[in-house]
Amino acid sequence: MSVVEIERGDGVMVIRMNRPERLNALGTELRAGLKQAWEEFDASTEYEVAILTGTGRAFCAGEDMKESVERGTVGSAAAPDNVRTNLFSEGKLDKPVIVAVNGFAMGGGFKIVDQADFRVAVRGAVFESSEAKRWLLGGYEHGHMGTLPHAIASEIAFAFRFTAERLYELGYLNRLVDEADQLLPTAQEMAAHLLTLPPASRVNTLAMMRAMRQRVPQELEELAARLKDHGAKEDLMESRKAFAEKRPPRFKGWNHPDDRKRTPKLAASN
Which long-range contacts (CB under 8 A, 24 or more apart) does 254-258 make? Predict the structure, then answer.
């Protein structure tokens, strides 16, 4: 059984993450399968729209914690260099991508949803920016890139969970369906509409809309890089070990108590 299944037809490629026993967590094998699928989609002259979905209770649970603990590295760094990124995650595809969120979209899974051009979800799907739980900088990109109000973006960043219903009400999702069996047909309807457009119009409009998307300014990217070094790095792995061992984490917090008061700030705020 492949961890990434592909269905091809009528100009649309459906890519399905198929690791339900691990909630489609981004382990090395799944990453490799997605990388290959996106390369096929990019090179194809037959398929112009992709739909990405998952199998089972989850769309994608994000980082594979078990693999991170085994490798002794965290986040995408737990994956080999050759599968760490792909054409979709790097924003290098010039074809529209629709996500059909069938269940949990956590951490890196939520980030995949962010990167898509169109978002469809089933009622009851749950979204969480898990980075703050794992000693990564709390998902500052999620709310910002989704052009959500600051208070909502803050709630996302601090790893509060959101239902599909609430995100639809906030304008983050394009479509919300009542039942799981309506998910792919609804995504297919959107894909079919896109395929009715003149090819150049579809490509050019996509390029324009992507160019208009919110981005994190360089000065904030630099602040994020400094904040990611602020605190006891042992907690990175401790959060994952605690998750894997199903126990409460024992966080250290700071290498020295005074570090708490040395939080990096924007240059203009110093």
Answer: 255/231
